[in-house]
Design goal:
Chain A: InterPro entries: AAA+_ATPase (IPR003593), ABC_transporter-like_ATP-bd (IPR003439), ABC_transporter-like_CS (IPR017871), P-loop_NTPase (IPR027417), PstB-like (IPR005670). Chain A: Residues 5-247 form the ABC transporter domain. Chain A: It comes from Streptomyces cellulosae. The complex is a heterodimer of chains A (258) and B (334). Chain A is of the alpha/beta class and 258 residues long. Chain A has helices at 43-49, 80-86, 102-113, 118-131, 135-138, 151-164, 181-194, 207-213, 237-242, 247-253; strands at residues 5-14, 17-27, 32-36, 60-68, 71-72, 87-90, 169-173, 199-203, 216-222, 229-236. Chain A has 10 helices and 10 strands. The longest helix of chain A is centred in the middle third of the chain and has 14 residues, at 118-131. The radius of gyration of chain B is 25 Å and the shape is globular. The chains are: A alpha/beta (258), B mainly alpha (334). At the A-B interface, helix 2, helix 3 and helix 6 of A face helix 9 and helix 10 of B.
Chain lengths: 258, 334
Amino acid sequence: MAKRIDVSGLNAYYGSFLAIEDISMTIEPRSVTAFIGPSGCGKSTFLRTLNRMHEVTPGGRVDGKVMLDDENLYGAGIDPVAVRREVGMVFQRPNPFPTMSVYDNVAAGLRLNGKYKKSQLDDVVEKSLRGANLWNEVKDRLNKPGSGLSGGQQQRLCIARAIAVEPNVLLMDEPCSALDPISTLAIEDLIGELKERFTIVIVTHNMQQAARVSDRTAFFNLAAVGKPGKLIEIDETERIFSNPSVQATEDYISGRFG
Amino acid sequence: MDTTTQKPAAPPAPGPAAPVDSSAARGVTRPGDRIFLGLSRGSGILVLVLMAAIAAFLTYRASLAISKDEANFFTTFEWNPSGLPPEFGIAVLAFGTVVSSVIAMVIAVPVAVAIALFITHYAPRRLGGPIGYVIDLLAAVPSIVYGLWGALVLVPHLDGLYGWLDDYLGWTGILEWNDGAPRSLFTVGILLAVMILPIITNVSREVFRQVPRMHEEAALALGATRWEVIRMSVLPFGRSGVISASMLGLGRALGETMAVAMVLSPSFTISASLLDPGGGTFAQNIASKFNEATEMGRDALIASGLVLFVITLLVNGAARLIIARRKEYSGANA
């Protein structure tokens, strides 16, 4: 299921403001790629261009190429809705549908895609919740509202919801920034398991987290406020954190940067 | 209003063993706090007292009339409180009030929700703003103006609609047109729908606007189309707000007076077809009879007013029950 992402010459705008400029990178399937960089450098914006979520922001616009295996996500005749069914996303703040039960939250994506028998849905819900390491905690309260869970459980519920539709890629936008250390650990363990099945891209502000979970790390930076964000370098995580090839990266990870 | 009156009424229980500490535990009371507490508590109590006074007044005057009523107050199709013997009943009025309001709700709520969704989720910002503004203006039009419009414009133009309804739905009986003038409960319902549309639209629009962006993005990221986003996150989140908005509209429809009086040709009958002229509503009946009523006649009208008061309370209570029943699923605890 996992697919390779190949980005070339990608620019993203908010209205007339160029937010990220000329990004090219390759993201390998069945691996975890982490995006790090200071606030405002465009790493979340770039993440959102990978499932065409950037353009739902008023004024949001993208040009360039994002190849998912051999399909250009920004090609003519590509339906953004179809792209988002293939590229799942987990957000910074856990956002289960507040009006839905745990079960319905996980089944929501499937129900969008068509009709399923109750037994099929049951199977997928259990499999996804097990996949998100949440099954044992919620199996007795599947019909309770998803918003009644703890923050960490809600985030794992969102992951279960995202993987229930078997996407090719899973994007995570600072998935642990609203969580306590224990919940963070649970999510990080989960990421390690999920990369067996999916291509995972994670944006994080926590450099230890990037070092712990990712195989490759991309460092983004911007020259000054109001200037577009750029990709500085992308490399094996080990190299980025021990011997990066660009001085700016070393300054950032060693804390010599604002 | 309950919370403002009840919360301050629960004092922190100071331990009797430590009288010196208890005043210190309560802290310094500043004059500003005391004045504001008094004002807000007083206002809360005043509302309750006013409600009780209205209820008491209505009940007292109503009981005077009902005790002299020689016919059954709830089932009689007649209004003759000054006759010998006095005979009057609210059956026709209750039927007309409820039916015309229900027709108004059936027409207005879907349209209002659709307009609110269009303004908040479909229309480009340049278009949504002006549309919202025009609808705000509609809410400010006095009901007498709606009544004039209804009588002079709406009624003369309904033959086509009535004919169409008769052709396709006449077989049901309740929408059969017997070629009477279109001054029926159905016409009243249409006019009331126009009148309550702005208030329902405005409140729904505000509710839909407050749907957190992250709930909509959750649906979008799953591959939901625009309509699916609305179905999965906007409508469920706005549900209780739309119910509240509808209750505001229903309240106006139930109590509307002048516009109904100007459009309906009243009679104390209930027709099988909603398209037949005749019928009446509580408010319309009170307004058209009050000036020329005797003392007894006024008490009888007040008795009918009491019934309207009770109906309104029941409707609001029912709406609160609906909202409370699914409270844990509301967006509030997200």
